[in-house]
Amino acid sequence: MTVDEALVKYCLRLGDDAMILGHRLSELCSKGPYLEEDIALTNISLDLFGQTRMMYTTAGELEGKGRKEDDFAYNRLEPEFENVLLVEQPNGHFGNTIARQLIFSVFYYHLFSELKNSPNENLAAFAAKSVKETTYHMRHSAEWVVRLGDGTEESHWRIKDALNEIWSYRHELFEQDEVDTTLVEAGLIPDTTTLKARFENSIKEVLDRATIDEVAEGWKATGGRRGHHSEYLGHILPIFQSIPRTYPDSTWS
Amino acid sequence: MEDVNKLEAFQAKIDREEKIEPKDWMPADYRKHLIRQISQHAHSEVVGMQPEGQWISRAPSLRAKVVLLAKVQDEAGHGLYLYSAAESLSISRDELLEQLHTEKAKYSSIFNYPTLTWADMGAVGWLVDGAAIVNQVSLQRTSYGPYSRGMVRICKEESFHQRQGYEVISDMALGSPEQKQMAQDALNRMWWPSLMMFGPHDADSPNTGNATKWKIKRETNDELRQKFIDKTVQQAEVIGLTIPDPDLKWNEERGHYDFGKIDWSELKEVIHGCGPCNKQRLNHHRKAHEEGAWVREAANAYAQKQRDKKKVA
Question: Nearest to residue A29, comparing CAs of B73, B255, B75, B207?
Answer without folding.
Answer: B73
